[in-house]
Amino acid sequence: MTSQELTEQIFKKKSFLCVGLDTDLERIPTYLLSEKDPVFSFNKAIIDATHEYCVAYKPNIAFYEALGVDGWKSLKKTINYLHSEYPDLYTIADAKRGDIGNTSRMYAKAFFEDLGFDSVTVAPYMGKDSVEPFLEFTNKHTILLALTSNEGAFDFQTLKTGDDDLYKKVIKTSKDWQNSENLMYVVGATKAEYLADIRKIIPENFLLVPGVGAQGGSLEEVCKYGITKNVGLLVNSSRKIIYASDSSNFAEIAAAKAEAIQNQMAQELEKL
């Protein structure tokens, strides 16, 4: 999916919500554990209930890898289901990969070719030759970790390097990489006040913004500093939606949570 196609979906659905599929067997309704594939059963129910309120889904790959081969099968069934039933939804592999060039190329093939994701999150610490293999793929996006929502972000990301904070240096440097037009960036909602400076560096790139919901980030603040005329935002909510209930009607309650966020987003879009 291209950025233009994603933007069209955002305005069509009046939403820039991304639902995170951080599916944990210890947190899903217990009755699902008797299913042949409880992870996929949970994901399918969440997707069917929330798809009209969001434009993207983001499986957190660690939750699937932790289950071994069965988890990887559940992930593949989930992405195949999205492709077959809801092909207009954008997909993000939240994998945070990054390694030397030939290894990164294999990671890219795994997520873009085998699984067919539209995008993958990547860690930039090893520099351009660890990221550019991902950027080679047509109509695929590489989502670079820039300024994350966790407490430890301040350990390194805001350290000064010359006149710039490190996260700003990362963003500025990445703009010169080959096929950098395929870059998006992760900027945490809990760091919303930093978005104004980030938008001075990358005024048009899409930003994936986690941290709205369980981590306490403000959607209004994110939009105040980060939204563009073409929106340029994918705001992720995971636990607040998918674990809103552990009862038999968990999917219905998840849908209500997603709809509430979508309604807020529609109000923000009206301001453009």
From TrEMBL:
User: What pathway is this protein said to act in by its record?
Assistant: Pyrimidine metabolism; UMP biosynthesis via de novo pathway; UMP from orotate: step 2/2
Q: Which family does it belong to?
A: Belongs to the OMP decarboxylase family. Type 2 subfamily.
Which superkingdom heads the taxonomic lineage of this protein's source? Bacteria
Q: Which residues form the Orotidine 5'-phosphate decarboxylase domain?
A: 16-254
Gene3D superfamilies reported for this sequence: Aldolase class I
Q: Which UniProt keywords apply?
A: Decarboxylase, Lyase, Pyrimidine biosynthesis
Classification via InterPro entries: Aldolase_TIM, OMPdecase_type-2, OMPdeCOase_dom, RibuloseP-bd_barrel
Which Gene Ontology BP terms does the record give? 'de novo' pyrimidine nucleobase biosynthetic process; 'de novo' UMP biosynthetic process
Q: Name one matching Pfam family.
A: OMPdecase
- Catalyses which reaction? orotidine 5'-phosphate + H(+) = UMP + CO2
Entry EC no(s): 4.1.1.23
Per its record, how is this protein called by name? Orotidine-5'-phosphate decarboxylase
Please give the organism: Christiangramia gaetbulicola
The Swiss-Prot or TrEMBL record annotates one GO molecular function as: orotidine-5'-phosphate decarboxylase activity
**Enzyme superclass (EC):** lyase
